[in-house]
């Protein structure tokens, strides 16, 4: 899976990014997470278009999103108050878009 393309697919369905923090752990030769070499990808609040493009370009790498070990971790905040975080099951991973639930009528 290409991390940049995966994020761009998510962005087609969401509000613009407010800020983001992503950590990537590559696999070592034994196909285990290489804890010594995490890479950090941050996009600050009030970023420019140039900073957004640089952030997206920095994520232009392939990783194994299938079963085994989770390699990407992080949170992306959107301008509409929703966010995305990494979902994972047995090493298979994806972005989960989340928003605040509506307040029930009996709490108003």
How many structural domains in the coordinates? 1
Number of helices: 2
> What gap, in angstroms, lies between the N and C termini?
44 Å
Shape, per Cα inertia axes: globular
Largest sheet geometry? 5 strands, antiparallel
| Poorly predicted ranges | none
What share of residues are in beta strands? 25-35%
Radius of gyration over alpha carbons? Answer: 15 Å
- Helix content estimate: 10-25%
Sketch the topology as an H/E string, one letter per element: HEEHEEE
Could you give the order of strands across the largest sheet?
2-1-3-4-5
What structural class do you assign from the helix and strand content? alpha+beta
The number of distinct β-strands equals: 5
Q: Could you tell me the mean pLDDT?
A: 90
Can you give a write-up of this model?
The chain is of the alpha+beta class and 108 residues long. The chain has one domain. 18% of the residues lie in helices and 31% in strands. It has helices at 3-11, 49-58, and strands at residues 17-24, 39-43, 72-78, 83-89, 92-98. Strands 2-1-3-4-5 form a five-stranded antiparallel beta sheet, covered by helices on one side. Strand 4 and strand 5 (92-98) form a beta hairpin. The radius of gyration is 15 Å and the shape is globular.
């Amino acid at each position: 899976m290409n991390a940049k393309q995966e994020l761009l697919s998510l962005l087609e369905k969401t509000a613009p990014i407010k800020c983001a923090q992503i950590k990537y752990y590559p696999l070592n030769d034994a196909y285990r997470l290489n804890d010594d070499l995490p890479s950090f990808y941050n996009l600050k609040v009030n970023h420019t278009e140039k900073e957004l493009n640089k952030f997206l370009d920095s994520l232009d790498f392939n990783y194994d999103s299938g079963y085994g070990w989770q390699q990407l971790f992080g949170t992306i905040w959107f301008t509409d108050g929703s966010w995305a975080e990494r979902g994972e099951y047995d090493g298979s991973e994806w972005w989960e878009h989340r928003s605040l639930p509506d307040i029930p009528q009996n709490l108003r």
